[in-house]
Amino acid sequence: MTCLNKRFVSLMNKVLDGEARREEKMELDRHMETCESCRNHFRELKQSTELLNHLSHPQLPFSFTKNVLDKLPAENRHALREWMSRHPVWATAAICALPMSFVMIAAKRQTFFQGKNGEDHGYLLLRVPEDRS
Amino acid sequence: MEYKEKRLIKKVKKGDHQAFAELVDKYKNSVYSICLRMVGNSQEAEDLSQETFIRAYKHIDQFDTDRKFSTWIFRIATNLSIDFLRRKKPSVSLDAELPGTDGLELKEILASGEALPDELVVWSETERIVQYEIDRLREKYRSAIILKYIQGLSLKEISEILGVPIGTVKTRIHRGREILRKNITAIRGEE
Ligand SMILES: [Zn+2]
Prior knowledge:
The complex is a heterodimer.
Chain A: H1 6-16, H2 22-34, H3 36-53, H4 64-71, H5 77-86, H6 88-96, H7 98-113
Chain B: H1 3-13, H2 17-39, H3 42-58, H4 69-88, H5 104-112, H6 123-136, H7 139-150, H8 155-162, H9 166-189
Helix pairs in contact in B: 1-2, 2-3, 2-4, 2-7, 3-4, 4-8, 5-9, 7-9, 8-9
Zinc ion (ZN) is lined by residues 3, 5, 8, 31, 35, 37-38 of chain A.
């Protein structure tokens, strides 16, 4: 179908990426005046990306934010610090109970990083996708 | 990152839910749009969006406030979507029939060779076909194409979200664009 000239295909990509210099754009235009297959190819490429641009952006229901908030871990760290500064005696008592809570936090953390089926999800935030081609 | 957002994130790091709600409101529809186009299903996309924000909240300590929050949250959304696709695979058959009717309207638009009008009466049908073609793209092309053409992000941002060099992002966009062109033109050819 195309005239298979790699130079012009790469120029098309440059133009579509908005990275073509003026001379390059003119070179492509000149070629397309006489080459019908490149002209069609370029038009088809542009149409495809235009279709993507025209896709709608549906909105989430209003309740979404509240649903997220309901699922967050309890709002406690900040409040706790404030509470401790106001009630030093109780805070001391609480610190005595601290070793126990470490055990509980450790247990909780483990279940979070292991998904329902025991697979490890901790990598999701940190991993570098392996496929670099 | 803008000052207001930086301040919000500092509050979130201290466990402030209300500050986090503001961030959710600001980014939820962009996150949803990424998930929706990645997995092609609105219910799954909503669940993935929710998981994205919950995960962001739980890991907010890892977020460096000198970076852009949008890049970070889009990275989580993209990774969760890719992870979801890998788990549910293989369901999309490349030989599957086009969904719904035969896509006649799209063929007509393409055959006319004209620029697409802003108001497309037939949009829902066209949209279904385009989503079908997105679904057929391999994950690495799909994510690059969605971030570029549906989110309108720069190559640099996409490269940070996907964790690959800019040159790789370009190659993926070129490949994805070419595959879409071929498949969408094939629909026209069926006339
Ligand atoms: Zn040519």
